[in-house]
Amino acid sequence: MGFLDYDWCGLNWSRWVKFESSNRNFKRIPDRQGLYHIKPVDRNILSYIGETTELKTRLRTLCLKILEPEMPFNDPHTAAPGHWAWKDAENMEFECSYVPNPYMNRADQRGLECYLLWQYRLETGESTLLNHGRFHPNYIKSGNRSSNRRGGRIQGNNVNPSSGPSHPPLIIHSKPIDKDWMRLEWSDMEQLSSENARKVPASYGLYKLIDTDIEDVVYIGQSRYFNARLYTHSQKLIDESRMAFSYYKFENPIPQHQLLEMENDLIGAYYSENKKSPRYQFLNITSFE
């Protein structure tokens, strides 16, 4: 089973480390930059794939938060509430495997994370239990600590919509700048300007920004109102003369987690071809926050 192999995606994954209150199992984990994935014990599925600058600290924090008596807040680890919910509902226990990756720049490591998430979707037909905002059907997620809003079990017969099915994984096809990339029907490229952004329909969709000088995708995004997102990009970019955009519009609304899944598939596919992230994808710069 590919995603459980120790050489999955050409990486050197560690042996599985069980989440326990004792610090014994975590002593051998290096506190270095790297990637990790988590699975329920005795289950052949993944619950989460992540990346970090401090493997030991990040994984130990997640372990301890899952073991708390109340659902933990969304910070410092966004995956803690979801793992807590699955543990509370089904008495799940978890274990992790990791791969140190100290020499890759952080933006490209995040692109590699997207690639792993996409590969998992291709192998299984669905996403991990808790990436892309997915959650347990019978629980509501905690907010950040500053909100003081803890989640917990949903009363009655209501179901968390973030527990819905995954969108089918996108299949590699064509080149990122092409109109049929990933078998989606992308619009014609237009110059990124406030005037052109205003003409775009207000709809759920995916979009890509293209540097026409080098004919390469430099940013991939999603939004429920992607015309407004494009307008924001056009206002914040200093030099928009060489920047173009293209979009894929959904005819009907889709769940937020499915939008995020498809955005991730696109970034993962770009990484697969280029072995790097789109230039502006994960940079902490004003134009693309």
Automatic annotation (TrEMBL):
Protein name (database record): GIY-YIG domain-containing protein
Region span, Disordered: 140-170
